[in-house]
Design a protein that fits this description.
Subcellular location: Cell membrane
Helix content: over 70%
Number of helices: 16
Strand content: under 5%
Shape: globular
InterPro entries: EIIC-GAT (IPR013853), PTS_EIIC_2 (IPR013014), PTS_sugar-sp_permease (IPR004703)
Largest sheet: 3 strands, parallel
Mean pLDDT: 83
Protein name: PTS galactitol transporter subunit IIC
Keywords: Cell membrane, Membrane, Phosphotransferase system, Sugar transport, Transmembrane, Transmembrane helix, Transport
Pfam families: EIIC-GAT (PF03611)
């Protein structure tokens, strides 16, 4: 058991930029790619991960201090520290049983593939920490370890089903075939979907408005670098920066929005050969099946709507933190809310205006769930001694991934204490998941015809 634990930690310590490409080389060789082609694609994928991490880090380092300054100027006092995702993953791996989640995810995926319950092979094994974190939060609420593993296993299954049903929508957004997103954050789609359906009945919001639409309507002001500059200047102004710093933040925002699509092209360059080889292999072996590769979110980063929406949400998030009664968390590490942006992008099909509206309406969910879990996360930090939290302060994550799922199913685990409200909420959430799945399945059928027509036209 100790050997398995050490082996898993050794592999995961390589990080996604090394670990995921290694998996991709193995997959490429299985589907009969030449080693040189598999190696080249995998190395390009590693470069893409490194590049995206650098650009995201650059944007975070630019915007987070401005956000902090805005909060400081407001005079509010919130005692839950927002550490972002990095300390959460550290705490997750500090759990003594964490290493067991790795084989659990692999076994569930293989069984579902064999039984034809999914067409997605999830190679995003580095993000297994998300399932561990869910289990840790469940234990923090109910103290029940078997239920913690059960709920984490349910998350694994639902991520794979999400990967299946979202693939065509993601392919339309990214133009990368045969790839889908299996990150747990996509489970927030279930919460967003009913709201997005309601927006269908609101005039103006029932039109598709994306970055390309904006370029047609307002010209240069919708160009990436110009939008980034304008948004950066606005955030610097909200932070009451001096003129020099406002202009610097504007140029930094312009640089970030310009670099994101450039780096995203590396994902297309890396994944296209692998996708073609997998498709050819599956046609030869299983003429009735198409296999999708499940990845982390960064291959979707070329969608400009993601970044415009997230930056616009920064002052909105801070405003909600200030005015929400009962909120106890000061947004900082999670101020760039990818946990909301990626689901909103998929649910709306890249409708920028709807993404912004969904962000305004649902940001309080993230803040309240972060506040709810703050005591459990803080206790875990103190018990494991891996993160020092001062007395009188709490540690949490303002943009905690899949907040609705984690809150509801953690509450459902209280059934061991004779409380049934959480279980009722969990059943209701699964009902919404079924509605979402069926709705997106119908959407996928429509997109399949559209994408096949586009592919045929390009081949001509």
């Amino acid at each position: 058991m100790e050997v398995l634990k050490n082996a898993i930690h050794f592999v995961l310590d390589l990080g996604a930029p090394v670990f995921v490409p290694l998996i991709m080389i193995i997959v490429g060789l299985i589907v009969r790619m030449k080693f040189r082609d598999a190696f080249s694609s995998a190395l390009t994928l590693g470069l893409a991960f490194i590049g995206m991490n650098m650009v995201v880090g650059f944007m975070m380092d630019s915007i987070s201090p401005a956000a902090q300054e805005f909060v400081k100027n407001s005079g509010i006092n919130l005692n839950a520290i927002d550490g972002g995702w990095t300390p959460m993953s550290t705490l997750a791996w500090a759990w003594p049983l964490a290493f067991l989640m790795f084989p659990i995810q692999i076994i569930i995926n293989l069984i579902m593939l064999a039984l034809k319950q999914t067409n997605t092979l999830n190679v995003d094994l580095w993000n297994v920490w998300g399932k561990i974190f869910t289990a840790v939060l469940v234990i923090g609420v109910s103290g029940n370890i078997p239920l913690a593993f059960l709920i984490a296993a349910i998350q694994v299954v639902l991520e794979l089903k999400m990967g299946d049903v979202n693939q065509k929508q993601i392919q339309k957004l990214t133009q990368i075939p045969g790839v889908t997103c299996t990150h747990g954050m996509t489970l927030f789609n279930v919460f967003l979907y009913p709201i997005n359906r309601l927006l269908d009945y609101i005039p103006f919001l029932n039109k598709h408005i994306d970055a390309n639409w904006l370029k047609q309507k307002i010209g240069i002001f919708a160009e990436n670098h110009v939008m980034g500059f304008i948004i950066g200047v606005l955030i610097g102004t909200f932070a009451q920066y001096p003129p020099q710093k406002i202009l610097i933040l504007g140029v930094q925002g312009a640089a970030a929005l310009t670099l994101f699509p450039m780096v995203a092209r590396l994902f297309m360059e890396a994944l296209a050969p692998l996708s073609d080889s997998i498709s050819e292999f599956m046609k030869q072996k299983y003429s009735d099946r198409q296999l999708y590769i499940g990845l982390d979110w960064p291959f979707m980063a070329g969608c400009n709507e993601l970044w415009v929406a997230m930056i616009i949400w920064v002052p909105i998030t801070l405003l909600w933190a200030v005015i929400l009664p009962g909120n106890n968390i000061l947004p900082f590490g999670g101020i760039i809310n990818l946990s909301l942006a990626v689901p909103a992008l998929i649910v709306t099909g890249g409708n920028l205006l709807r993404m912004i509206v969904l962000g305004v309406l649902t940001t309080p969910v993230f803040l309240y769930v972060a506040t709810f879990f703050a005591p459990a996360i803080t206790n875990l930090a103190k018990d494991t001694h891996v993160i020092n939290v001062k007395d009188g302060q709490f540690l949490s994550w303002s943009s905690i991934e899949l907040p609705d799922f984690r809150y509801i199913f953690a509450q459902a685990s209280n059934i061991v204490h004779g409380e049934f409200l959480g279980l009722a909420l969990a059943i209701g959430w699964l009902g919404l998941f079924y509605w979402y799945y069926k709705g997106m399945q119908k959407r996928a059928d429509q997109l399949s015809t559209e994408l096949e027509g586009t592919s045929h036209h390009m081949s001509l």
